[in-house]
Amino acid sequence: MMMNSDKKTGSFSKIRKLIAVLEKCNGNSAVGGKGALISPKAAKALACFGLILLTVALFFGCYFLEPIIAAVISVKVITQTVMLAILILTFVLAVKNIVTVLYTADDLPVLLPMPFSAGQIVSAKMAVASRFSVIVSLIGINALCLGFGIRAGMGAPFIIGTVLSSILIPVTGLSVAALLVVVIFRLFGFIRNRDITMVLGGIFSLLLIIAYLFVSNRLNADDSSQVAAAAFTAISSITVGFPNISFMSSFMFEGSFAGLLISVGITAAVAVLAMLAVKVFYLATALSMQNTGTRSKAVTKDSLSGKKKSDMLKALTVYERRSTKRNPAYLIYGFAMSFIWPLFVVLPFVFGQSSLFSDLVFPFDTRSALLCALFLGLTASCFACGFSVLPVTAFSREGDSFSMLRSMPIDYRLYFKSKRNFAMLICTLGSVLYVVIAGVVCIALGIITIGNCWVILYGAAASFLLDLIFIDWMLLKNSKRPYFNWDSETEISRKLCWINVVAFIIGFVAMLLMIASIVLSTMLSVSEGAADTGWITTIVVIVSVSVAVILSILAFAFDRFAVKKAEKNLLNLE
């Protein structure tokens, strides 16, 4: 018996130490390191004190607000809503954390040779994945529900059920998330690619943000207490589909002991199923996780041999296209982000409060349409180029292959132009194409008249010229100091630089100016009857023409300079 006890203690100690290591490896190390002002123990004590203080503050806040809120919303509705919200929150957090800790982490090949059993490794990983969810549940459910319930005079079943729910709900959310994630990763082989997994996670997060904006917009349509009460009642009614919450509620508010047993039994059953799924499927699936790989045919010297300059430029451009398309990492981080940027710009206006644009007067006159087209073109160009990693990593992506390219009789000017042409193709599709589509939509909706349709071409031209400037700038910077010593193509495919940040800033400013020009157009339309605003139209036309001329001169002059300078940079590389 003593030997078994020592074995269990040693196993628990191993899991505890492994949890501490995994937390640090996953970026969750606590404050209080070597260079900190306080020790790790003091930091943990301070963190615990802060969490306790937060819990007490939430409890007394709900305790004193209960008489006011109870006049509109019952304690039962509030409790069920809080439990459902915590369950959904813990499930979402668990999905993210389980995918990160169990699958996308690279630590499994390192841990398996160590003196840890498979069960200890999985237990430690699940503990790391569930830590934040459990803390949120313990604080949220106990502080909020007990604050309202004790002030309302609820009995012992309510208090017992609340405390138990703060433990059972995160266990249920974590178990369901683990069960789904493990089974999905087992059934669908393509999702085992780390980069595809990260993109799917980003899409899932984006959908959650869209849903939140939509629900928030609906709930903010009317600030009356009746609307809030109806919303809480509707949410609490959904708990019928969650038997662990509904049965626990029957114990808390009706004293049904059978409801308590059924709720605990449901949580235990889901946890057992999750443990079985992890035991059967996890290790084999996790070990098959991979980074993006190459499957297309490699480019040979024969494909780069061209007698004429036009043939060589074409061959180099085809080489750039193939070397970029062959790897999913480049497709994800080089192509996708340049095309999905409108979601980050359009959605806040679609689902947010749009009172700023409620009094707009359509159609826009020439000066307003011209300004909007100009700023739209600048915004599209900045975001399409800012999100793209193709030009800023164009030469770095060659890696060890660059030494082979240097041994070939290629013209470095044509080599630079091939990189520029391909990056221009992608960024143009992500900027100029959207400007044209937005212009056609504005014409169809009557925002711009047929007579002013030429402003669409003006905005598209401005976007194209700025694309050329940014791409030449990025290529020139990368040609000066390319980074060839990378470990994987995935690593280099995610690298942005300060030029991307500059593009984001300019794009954000251009977007604000576009919004200001839209609002200003309505103000000028209202005041036109009282004053002559022809001088404003003259100024707008002069500014627009000047911007077009400056962009044209700057774009083509900088392009010629970039080609010559990049040739020298590439020749001087060691």
Please tell me about this protein's structure.
76% of the residues lie in helices and 0% in strands. It is mainly alpha-helical and 574 residues long. It is flat. 33% of the residues are buried. The N terminus is likely disordered.
Question: Characteristics of this structure?
Answer:
574 residues; mainly alpha; 76% helix; disordered N terminus
Element layout with pairings:
Layout: H1 2-25, H2 40-70, H3 75-104, H4 108-111, H5 118-151, H6 156-187, H7 194-219, H8 225-237, H9 243-254, H10 257-287, H11 309-325, H12 328-351, H13 366-386, H14 401-406, H15 412-429, H16 432-444, H17 454-480, H18 489-493, H19 498-527, H20 534-571
In a nutshell, what does this entry contain?
This protein has 574 residues and is mostly helical. The chain has 20 helices and no strands.
Number of strands: 0
Strand content: under 5%
SSE sequence, one letter per element: HHHHHHHHHHHHHHHHHHHH
Categorize the overall geometry. Answer: flat
Average residue-wise pLDDT: 75
Sheet with most strands: none
Low-confidence stretches: 1-9, 27-36, 290-307, 351-355
Number of helices: 20
Helix percentage:
over 70%
Structural class: mainly alpha
Specify Rg, calculated over alpha carbons.
30 Å
Ends distance = 68 Å
